[in-house]
TrEMBL record:
The lineage of its organism: Archaea, Methanobacteriati, Methanobacteriota, Methanomada group, Methanococci. CDD domains: fer2. Residues 3-89 form the 2Fe-2S ferredoxin-type domain. It comes from Methanotorris igneus (strain DSM 5666 / JCM 11834 / Kol 5). It comes from the Archaea. InterPro entries: 2Fe-2S_ferredoxin-like_sf, 2Fe-2S_ferredoxin-type, Beta-grasp_dom_sf, Corrinoid_activation_enz, Raco-like_middle, Raco-like_middle_sf, RACo_C. This is Ferredoxin. GO terms for molecular function: iron-sulfur cluster binding.
Length: 553
């Protein structure tokens, strides 16, 4: 038996899909090509709540919340329904301002040759170039674009040589448009990774067991983003000649249409670790003249994004010992210098990106990003100064946790023990509707405990104390926005002085690789020579993790 789900968007447009009875509203949306943010997929987080405008009686009762709302991921339909989809807002774009990446002298073999049609036959022409030249007069002046000594494009008026660097995060995706003639970033665009509708973490997505669909939703959004970038900057998509891609191990696999099923079980072995170089059209990107280079992978849960981050810090070239912490859905950590690099991945969970936090949200307009607690009141800021707040993002979560500790409202074990007028029923209210609960505190403890335990294990394996670390680089989905003092207070970061924010180290590394063949070779050597430590099987991890669960101050 079949039934119809009709989805109404914020702008009033409608889209219907016919499904089998018992299909969830989320599954129907996926079939219809409609994006619904569903981080947990189990009904626990409540973030896929949708308004049922018609047919509430046709929905499984267990999924109904707050009157006429239902949780899309578990709301099975047994008759026709009409659903209103909440407005979808993407993440705040990660810029690359502030910290300066190492200067790169472009050495990719792409160049422009100005000549005439009659002289163009002296070059190695592709069939596409021949067809273009055949429509011109022999005396016409033309610009030949040579890539690896092959003519891949012909233009009468030179339009430029551009490339893209793409950072595929588990939560968000950032695309950088780069002028490859001078290495300048022209523009940037970001969006939530549409694979979130299959789960907030990579294991949930792997369990969905459909690599083709996971690739398709990602590539579709990438093509949309690239088209917008080019249109906004008056650049033809045919003038994109090179693309570099970074991401964690699972994201690189899924970008290539490969389901990394072995990452879901011990010993967490990726299908491949080497860098790939292929025509962009092989993965479905709408770029006729471009090739894609994916940076290499280090290990099961330390991917190409970590290689990019190492490149951008140049910690592998320095005498001093540095620590790199990439805080996202997973926490990747690198320790070392030019003599030796060790790395690990911490199963921190997505708490710092708002998942599993009752009023957590990703970093977008209206998200609480800063918090201060006084005796009588609570001060907060939202991204874009938008009111009322829609939830708490990662930097706000760290702030509220640190403030609760400083004010004595929460003790070192993570329990509510103090008094404040905003504390009611083990919930601390930031405003009338947004609160931070006892369960939220536990999620923060688990996340920060995993990261700090990873740091301790790497120091143990390296044979140093934390105090021997000269410099700490912080990056990741919200790394450049966190208050370092507050992060130290909750025990997320070591109590060291030389801590440097890098707003998107992985993206910077991807840009470096876009411009330089030398950097690509360097990336391959880095991936081979960086030693991966698997924390789950390390004898000291459980002890360090339990110790790190307590708050330090």
């Amino acid at each position: 038996m079949m039934c119809k789900i009709t989805y109404i968007m914020e702008d009033g447009t409608k889209k219907s899909v016919v499904v089998d009875k018992g299909t969830t509203i989320l599954e129907g949306a996926i079939n219809a090509g409609i994006y619904l943010d569903a981080p947990c997929g189990t009904g626990k987080c409540g973030k896929c709540k949708v308004l049922i405008e018609e047919g509430l009686e046709n929905i499984e009762e267990i999924s109904i919340v707050d009157g006429n709302y239902a949780l899309a991921c578990i709301a099975r339909v047994y008759g026709d329904v009409v659903v209103k989809i909440p407005n979808f807002e993407g993440v705040v774009c990660k810029s690359i301002s502030g910290y300066s990446s190492p200067s790169i002298i472009p050495d990719i073999n792409i160049k422009k040759i100005s000549t005439t049609v009659s002289e163009s036959s002296n070059y190695n022409l592709t069939l596409k170039a021949i067809v273009k030249l055949n429509s011109m007069n022999l005396s016409d002046k033309v610009n030949l674009i040579l890539k690896n000594n092959n003519v891949v494009n012909v233009e009468k008026d030179f339009s430029g040589i551009y490339g893209l660097s793409i950072d595929i995060g588990t939560t968000s995706v950032v695309v950088y448009l780069v002028d490859m003639c001078n290495g300048v970033v022209v523009d940037t665009i970001s969006f939530l990774n549409p694979q979130r509708q299959f789960g907030a973490d990579v294991i949930s997505r792997i369990a969905y067991n459909n690599g083709d669909l996971l690739q398709k939703v990602l590539i579709t959004e990438l093509n949309n983003a690239i088209s917008k970038l080019c249109s906004k900057n008056n650049i033809k998509m045919d003038n994109i000649y090179e693309v570099t891609v970074v991401g964690n191990t699972a994201m690189i696999h899924l970008f290539c249409g490969i389901l990394p099923k072995n990452l879901a079980t011990y010993p967490y072995v990726p299908t491949f670790k080497n860098s790939l170089y292929m025509p962009a059209k092989m993965v479905g990107l709408d770029l006729k003249n471009a090739d894609v280079y994916t940076l290499p992978i280090i290990g099961g849960f330390v991917g190409a994004d970590t290689v990019g981050a190492i490149l951008s810090t140049e910690m592998h070239k320095k005498n001093e010992i540095s620590l790199l912490i990439d805080i996202g859905t997973n926490g990747e950590i690198v320790l070392g210098n030019k003599e030796k690099l060790l790395t690990c991945s911490c199963a921190a969970g997505p708490a710092f990106e708002g998942v599993n936090i009752e009023h957590g949200t990703n970093a977008k307009e209206g998200a609480i990003c800063k918090v201060k607690i006084n005796e009588d009141c609570v001060y907060y800021e939202t991204i874009g100064n938008k009111k009322p707040p829609i939830g708490i993002c990662g930097s706000g979560i760290i702030d509220i946790m640190a403030e609760l500790l400083r004010s004595g409202i929460v003790d070192k074990t993570g329990r509510f023990v103090g008094e404040h007028k905003n504390l009611r029923d083990n919930k601390f209210f930031i405003d009338d509707t947004i609160y931070f609960s006892q369960g939220d505190i536990r999620e923060v403890q688990l996340a920060k405990g995993a990261i700090f335990a990873g740091i301790k294990i790497l120091c143990h394996e390296y044979g140093i104390d934390i105090e021997d670390i000269s410099k700490v680089y912080i990056t990741g989905a919200f790394g450049c926005h966190i208050d370092v003092k507050n992060a130290k207070t909750i025990g997320l970061l070591p109590d060291l002085n030389n801590i440097i924010h890098i707003d998107n180290a992985a993206g910077r590394g991807a840009i470096m690789a876009l411009l330089s063949e030398k950097i690509r070779n360097e990336a391959n050597e880095l991936a081979k020579n960086t030693k991966y430590i698997e924390l789950s099987s390390h004898s000291n991890f459980e002890t360090e993790f339990i110790s790190a669960l307590r708050f330090s101050k």
